[in-house]
Recover the amino acids of this structure.
């Protein structure tokens, strides 16, 4: 059975990194952007990282410019923005594509393992996102593609994709799942 440990990615400087380096850790793999309505999510992500990192938790950040060009700039400028504005310490990788033929192989795998999880309909942005995506594709909910930045995939200590969280998901729900998989 394939796991995320079968993949290598490029760090923000272009060096290959085998995800085997993260074996036996709980991972949260996130596609991000610096000019997105969800960019303040970096604050919550850093809080999770600080709280759980010493217990074997890692966040792997993959900037993505596919959604309205919301991750402009170089890999280094994105990194500096996140450190300066949100104090992020978790690993950040090279900017990638998450959808389409030239999507990062890791993201093709993640989406195969966990399809679209649905929006939290109580989130204030739900009506806007649902309307916008429905107008572009009335069947958008049936596709496993990433719909927006800050989609998160939770990976257990065995490298298996166990959950997908859309950007509207409450951080409290994510915390409960992180704690469950750290306890295993």
């Amino acid at each position: 059975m394939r796991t995320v440990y079968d993949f290598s990615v490029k760090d923000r400087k272009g060096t290959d990194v085998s995800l085997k380096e993260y074996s036996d850790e709980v991972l949260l793999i996130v596609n991000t952007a610096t000019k997105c309505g969800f960019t303040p999510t970096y604050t919550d992500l850093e809080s999770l990282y600080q709280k759980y990192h010493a217990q074997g938790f890692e966040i792997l950040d993959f900037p993505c410019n596919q959604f309205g060009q919301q991750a402009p700039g170089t890999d280094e400028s994105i990194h500096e923005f996140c450190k300066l504005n949100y104090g992020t310490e978790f690993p950040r990788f090279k900017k990638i594509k998450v959808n389409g033929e030239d999507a990062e192989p890791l993201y093709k795998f993640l989406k195969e393992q966990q399809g679209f999880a649905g929006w939290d309909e109580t989130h204030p942005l739900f009506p806007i996102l649902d309307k916008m995506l429905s107008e572009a594709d009335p069947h958008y909910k049936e596709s496993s593609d990433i719909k927006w930045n800050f989609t998160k995939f939770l990976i257990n200590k065995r490298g298996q994709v166990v959950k997908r969280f859309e950007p509207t998901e409450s951080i409290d729900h994510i915390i409960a799942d992180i704690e469950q998989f750290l306890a295993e």
Summary: Residues 34 and 71 are 5 Å apart (CA to CA). The chain has five helices and six strands. Helices lie at 41-52, 75-86, 105-113, 126-136, 171-183. The chain has a mean pLDDT of 94.
